[in-house]
Write a structure and sequence with these properties.
heterotrimer; A alpha+beta; B mainly alpha; C mainly beta; A: alpha+beta; Immunoglobulin-like; 5-stranded mixed beta sheet; disordered N terminus; C: mainly beta; 0% helix; 54% strand
Chain lengths: 157, 284, 106
């Protein structure tokens, strides 16, 4: 019978689906990052230094296609020579459960201070990128990103 | 922006049969006042989107998602394709045979196959989709247990096979035995269902190109399946995607492998006939 | 099972700045989700990525749960000499994966 070929009853499939797909899951809201915890996380990286605005460009869509996978690129203006280069790029967010997204460590061998990745955004929020330069200075930029829920989901939980 | 006048007339008839009646029509009238007016003088036209206006969901992707689909090394779906190649060459079941033992190099033997599935199965007397075909082969030729729906291995194989049809047009179903199943698929596509009494056609025939919750409503052509869906952060089948939509419509989904899903897959592929296979695609 | 995809230009001119793209298969379970009976799902992520060019570190990244599944990472480096660029991913539950690509610099 066809049912055997497919190998499961509907209920088995739903349960298997939930375990295997891992998508029909209940999200119990943990303590989310807040603008305060984001500031704290930034402080942890920069210490007492002043963070100046500029030199950093955030390339992220203003309205994301899907908050579960968002393309992100950060570029920092720098000659990237042995005397003057970007040491690190740190990305932070306001409303995910944790304020940190990624910390990238570069050096003069990079040639170009540009990184890209894909990340998750729990909600509409501001993200901040902080660049640490070889002279000890910190520069930052921020971007506001709008996140909506998808219309078509695995379940209504 | 296309809105087909026949849609309204067709649904008025169906609404009557299903007893959805006045509530459904009132909701629809509220949502689409322009269509109500058109309905009063609606001639009967084909509901199909003409080939030159057919548009893949790829066209609506953002720059980075397009780049993800265009570059195999940046598309996580490639992991499944590579695993599919491994499975293709692995001996399985008590017959201890691999797919390759009978079918040889998939790049040759499987070229065009995904582009003409679902296909009619003589013995079963009905269409089967690629997933079911794989499981039938496993049972009949390899003496192996079927793969579970949405399992990694089944997705890997369908991704690998689908990939062999990339760049090819979706084939027109000329087998006359498929006609009643295509019609069934069309009926399912057009029927209103669920708590908000919606049909697939309302969004995908009548309102494609418009926004729904921050996304553009696609025409819904299955040119890239199985797809890497950003929402899932994983690869998934057309049936899984259909289930998402039906749940999104607040209706009860069909089971994986059900005749309803196969009829819908068949209809959707025919609705998209002539369009180019992109498997494995990336979609939001 | 296939684990990592690496995109490095094969033949480049000395001094050229090249983009390296990497992709690794990983669920990146955040640790903030619960299953359908309320049980928390433990965190399971890649925490570190390192790239070395002929043995010298050229890029390093610390990843957090906010990084999407199947992490994609791209960065740049100056093509200095021919050789091998090696990649290493480490994470929770002893996760450890490596990859490498040859580069010819003329």
């Amino acid at each position: 019978m066809e049912k055997h070929i497919m190998g499961a009853t509907r209920r088995d499939m739903l349960l298997a689906g939930m375990a295997g797909l891992g998508a029909a899951l209940i999200k119990i809201e943990p303590a989310a990052a807040t603008p305060e915890s984001m500031k704290k996380a930034i402080r942890q990286v920069v210490g007492e230094a002043t963070v100046r605005t500029g030199r950093v460009t955030i390339d992220v869509p203003t309205l994301v296609e899907n908050g579960n996978t968002v393309a992100l690129a950060i570029e920092v203006e720098s000659p990237m020579t042995k005397e003057n280069y970007v040491k690190a790029i740190h990305v932070f967010n306001e409303k995910n459960p944790l304020p940190n997204v990624i910390s990238a460590h570069l050096g003069p061998r990079a040639g170009r201070a540009r990184i890209s990745t894909r990340f998750r955004l729990a909600d509409t929020q501001t993200i901040v990128a902080v660049a640490e330069l070889s002279d000890g200075s910190f520069w930052s930029a921020s971007a506001d990103v709008i996140v909506t829920l998808a219309a078509c989901l695995e379940s209504l939980d | 922006m296309m809105s087909t006048q026949t849609r309204w007339v067709g649904e008025a008839k169906r609404a009557h049969h299903r007893g959805a009646g006045r509530v459904g029509m009132a909701l629809r009238a509220f949502a689409h006042p322009t269509i109500v007016l058109l309905a009063l003088c609606a001639p009967l036209l084909a509901t199909e989107i003409p080939l030159d206006q057919r548009r893949s969901g790829y066209e609506d992707l953002g720059r980075d998602s397009k780049a993800m689909e265009d570059d195999d090394t940046a598309n996580p779906a490639t992991f499944w394709v590579l695993d599919g190649e491994t499975i293709w060459n692995q001996k399985a079941g008590t017959a201890n045979k691999s797919c390759a033992d009978c079918h040889g190099d998939a790049a040759q033997s499987m070229k065009g196959v995904a582009a003409r599935y679902p296909a009619f199965d003589e013995r079963l007397g009905r269409p089967v989709d690629l997933e079911e075909r794989i499981n039938l082969e496993r049972r009949d030729r390899q003496n192996a247990a079927p793969f579970k729906f949405e399992s990694h291995d089944l997705l890997a194989l369908t991704a690998y096979l689908g990939r062999q049809s990339r760049g090819m047009p979706i084939a027109e179903a000329t087998d006359p035995r498929l006609k009643p199943f295509i019609a069934r698929g069309r009926a399912l596509f057009e029927q209103r269902e669920g708590q908000i009494n919606m049909s697939c056609a309302e969004c995908h025939d009548d309102n494609w190109g418009r926004k729904l919750a921050g996304n553009i409503v696609p025409q819904a052509h299955p040119t890239g399946y199985p797809i890497y869906r950003l929402e899932w952060q994983s690869l998934g089948s057309l049936q899984r995607r259909l289930r998402n939509c039906i749940v999104g419509m607040r209706a009860e989904s069909y089971e994986f492998g059900s005749p309803e899903f196969v009829a819908l897959e068949l209809f959707l592929m025919q609705r998209a006939r002539g369009m180019t296979i992109e498997t494995p695609g990336v979609r939001p | 099972m296939a684990r990592a995809l690496i995109n490095v230009p094969q033949k480049v001119k000395s001094g050229q700045v090249i983009e390296i793209k990497t992709l690794i298969s990983h669920i990146m379970e955040t640790g903030f989700r619960h299953d359908n009976v309320g049980k928390p799902i433990p965190r399971n992520i890649i925490t570190t990525f390192v790239a070395r060019y002929n043995g010298e570190e050229i890029f390093r990244a610390d990843l957090f749960p906010a990084i999407a599944a199947n992490p994609f990472l791209s960065f740049h480096t100056v093509a200095t000499e021919s050789g091998t660029i090696e990649f290493e991913w480490t994470g929770d539950n002893g996760f450890h994966e490596t990859g490498s690509a040859k580069i010819t610099v003329e």
